[in-house]
Amino acid sequence: RDADHTLACVVADAMVMEGVFEPSRDNESQWRQSMTDYSLWDEFLERWPLERVREMTLEDYSQSGNKDTFTYWLEAKLSLYGSVWGGSSFKFGVFSRADDKPKVSNNNRSYSARYGWYTRDGSTAEEAFEVTKARIGQVIEAVTAGNIEAIDQIDLGPAYKWKIAFHYQDRARPLVVAVFLHTWLAALCDEKPSSGAISHYHRKLIAQMGPDVDLMEYSRTLWQTSRELSEPVDSVAEGGDLPLNTIFYGPPGTGKTYTTINRALEIICRTDEPLNREIGRLLDDPQADRELLERRFFQLVDDRRITFLTFHPSFTYEDFVQGIRPVLGEAGEVAYEMKDGPFKRIADAARTEYSPKSADYELPEGASVYKMSLGNTLRTEDDDIYEHCMEKGLIAHGFGNEVDFSDLLESADWGSGSALIREKLMQTDIADDRVVFATRVIWWFIREISQNDIIVVSRGNYRIRAIGRVTGEYNFDRDRELRYNHTRPVEWIVRDADIPVEQISSKVFSQQTLYRLNPRDIRLGNLRSLLAKPDVVERPRNYVMIVDEINRGNIPRIFGELITLIERDKRLRPGPDGRLTGYRVALPGALDDDPPFGVPENLYVIGTMNTADKSITTLDVALRRRFAFEPMYTKYELIEDDDARELLRELNRRIIEAKDRDHQIGHSYFMALGSDELEDLMNGKIVPLLEEYFFGDATKVLELFDGLDVGGGSVKLTTTGALRFERPGG
């Protein structure tokens, strides 16, 4: 057995999702043959018997770069027998970090230069490891004794602990199948996921295995069945209609931002199968890795699939939709341009999902992307240049228009080539100050652009009107009806579009006729989506606009005509012929050649609203009609500490009596609260918040705490007139 080769195949084919492994088609036969070979499993048990597990050190358990640690064996080498590959390393309880970059510890997770661990398990990595090692020993002892129900109660990563149990069970009398994902186990048992009792699923599936059936063959059948039962698009994408416009409202600390991130990811997952395959099933799992979800969220923000902003009293329509903004020219002079705001930019980006595509093209590795102008879009007499190029499948320019540069194809390098270009240009009437610029354009056009490179045709500095693939070499033709004689053949993939440049680039275009885009500025995922030819009528990708503190802005002034356009029945959607239908309006600052603006149906708007600032009853009536409102109030069951839970419950009851339910205090303040942190919480957040609620009336705040046991302390009025929480002896 070639263990390294087997491991390479396994790692290459492991899905980045805890609890599932699926072979690729290419190595299906090799995988089938290897899956019933238990030699690697046996080697693991020889290397890591229970006695060694009890005596192992932190370095034995996890050490970056060491492929013989306990965690590396379970995650990588044993992937063939069911995978826990990917996700966060916190599933191991404590882990060796791959780098020593400083990370900030918090109430949930702690970091040193070498390790990360759960704060609850100790103040150092060594303390956390001893706790984790003890739990691993408990898992092994439980499965060895046949008491897998005890494993449900052991506080270790869910998939990870069942992976351990699987490998330490008696294979002759198995108790655990090689499926570790909670939702898949539930689907196999035709049940809804419960809050615990994973052992129940394993018992049920093992009972159905039958005699003389190989455990891994049976597990493979379960993997295939669970995939059919839990197709990625079904878990989220087919989960029923979500409102296009939603506002989460409630008091502070009730999880509005937390819920907003999950809802945004759910919306994106509905039309993004790879992302859904990775995180779709984690969105409803309270034990899911929050860092992974937030990392994916902010990656989507960077990719412009999600836009996040906050309203404030001075926020305007010009900030949100479109308005005139001052810009500095190259010489430092001030000019004014019409600039799109974040809502118009993401609406235009969402609309590009419906852009007509005349071809289907997969961007090859190493292909370059060039920006090119086909005539001046501000001059109507140049319209024929663009139209001719679209019709004939060309790109063209007119520098040194009467000179044939075909011999440049034989030039060895830029030095000799640029000299040849300048020599020929000096024989024309080109202005001296344009020679250097024209030389660069001609060289790029003939020598730098290669077949299969991508040409992006600009419309000004902020829009894209066409995208094509270069299919041939330079051609000079004086007889062409186009007044530009220098051409190259192109297959147009997207044409006659109106795509914001930020959809594919982090920088706006410059006014140069032709140049190569910096690869670091290109958003490759979005570009690939534009070049592909999906069934845009059926499943355009979704986009999300998130407005935090939406009630702090002047809604009628900020939204303007959007109040009408965001309604579901006014949204742009493809008609029977594939063309977009729906309401469009000419924006106040639109230029004559700007197309009317509409909001596509694949753009979702999510707002958050703190009811302590303003009740929903005071919101603009038109806005209230167009949004679905979802309340977010205190969830006491999320507070683990019994005393803290009852304290908050009683405090909120008194707040409701003294004021109203919109001014309660949310559960997030009290989650993962340490015993020595209550004083900081009360003085730093709770007491100041209550003073704000009651407009600085200390008497009313003191009445809330009258006779209330606050962790052995109380809120008092100090000699300076300030309210402060104190404990006896403090």
Plain-language structure description:
Helix content is about 35%, strand content about 15%. The chain has 27 helices and 22 strands. Strands 8, 9, 10, 11, 12, 13, 14 and 15 form an 8-stranded mixed sheet that branches. The chain has a 5-stranded parallel sheet with strand order 5-16-19-4-20. A hairpin with a 5-residue loop joins strand 6 and strand 7.
Q: What does the main sheet amount to?
A: 8 strands, mixed
Mean of the pLDDT scores?
Answer: 82
Radius of gyration: 32 Å
Distance between the termini: 67 Å
Q: Specify the overall morphology.
A: globular
Total helices: the number is 27
Structural class call reads alpha+beta
Percent helix range: 25-40%
Relevant terms:
730 residues; alpha+beta; 8-stranded mixed sheet; 5-stranded parallel sheet; 27 helices; disordered N terminus
SSE layout:
Layout: H1 3-13, H2 28-35, H3 39-47, H4 50-55, H5 58-61, H6 70-77, E1 94-96, E2 109-111, E3 115-118, H7 125-144, H8 158-168, H9 182-188, H10 198-207, H11 215-229, H12 232-237, E4 245-250, H13 256-269, H14 273-279, H15 290-302, E5 306-310, H16 317-320, E6 322-328, E7 334-340, H17 342-351, E8 369-372, H18 383-392, E9 394-397, H19 414-425, H20 435-448, E10 454-459, E11 463-470, E12 475-476, E13 486-494, E14 499-500, E15 514-516, H21 524-531, E16 543-548, H22 555-559, H23 562-565, E17 573-574, E18 580-581, E19 603-610, H24 621-626, E20 628-631, H25 642-658, H26 678-693, H27 698-705, E21 714-717, E22 723-726
Parallel strand pairs: 4-19, 4-20, 5-16, 8-10, 16-19
Antiparallel strand pairs: 1-3, 2-3, 6-7, 8-15, 9-13, 10-11, 11-13, 11-14, 12-13, 17-18, 21-22
Helix pairs in contact: 7-8, 9-10, 9-11, 13-15, 19-20
